[in-house]
Fold this sequence. Notes:
heterodimer, A: mainly beta, seven-stranded mixed sheet, four-stranded antiparallel sheet, B: mainly beta, six-stranded mixed sheet, three-stranded antiparallel sheet, globular
Amino acid sequence: EVQLVESGGALVQPGGSLRLSCAASGFNFNVYSMNWVRQTPRGLEWVSYITSDTRTIYYADSVKGRFTISRDNDKNSLYLQMNSLRDGDTAVYHCARGFQWAFDYWGQGILVTVSS
Amino acid sequence: QSALTQPPSASGSPGQAVTISCTGTSSDVGNYNRVSWYQQHPGKAPNLLIYEVTKRPSGVPDRFSGSKSGNTASLTVSGLQAEDEADYYCTSYAGGSNWAVFGGGTKLTVL
Lengths: 116, 111
């Protein structure tokens, strides 16, 4: 069974940093692209994408220059380093497996709250 | 990149069919057959229903179908059931590093 479990969410002050992790199991992690997608009451927003070999990485304009996606295929783990956090980054962050320009499995998500 | 446009709400009675639209531009929906649809129940993670406009992953009932015309994609739910009551989101590839742009979501109510 495919499982994606996020961790690392917290309450952080504006300007602060946080690192999210996503532990993958039940599939061959090192052949799939992965994504981070965040959700607020306004809806879903794609955040970042990384290929299986890490050669291609994309970011949404809203996080470019502040967030860094990475992965460790030996540990079946995906990461999101978030710096210079803003109020608008408050959201539930999901990791999602890439499939044919879609997201076929999602984690339950982890809450990140940016507030003073 | 602007979000795709979905109606905020839709409704239908059990057994009926409902169609949810997703309007983009010639830079995203109109230019690529890379539209996908997701169902999300409260407190749950989104679930992939349709990918590449019309394709269903294994396990998704054939009551769910997708289509596209020009810059607008559509999701049709036939034979509405109570468990179809949920939020539905569309997304499209938008070229280059714009990997995915989402619609604002549609809340489907089964009357």
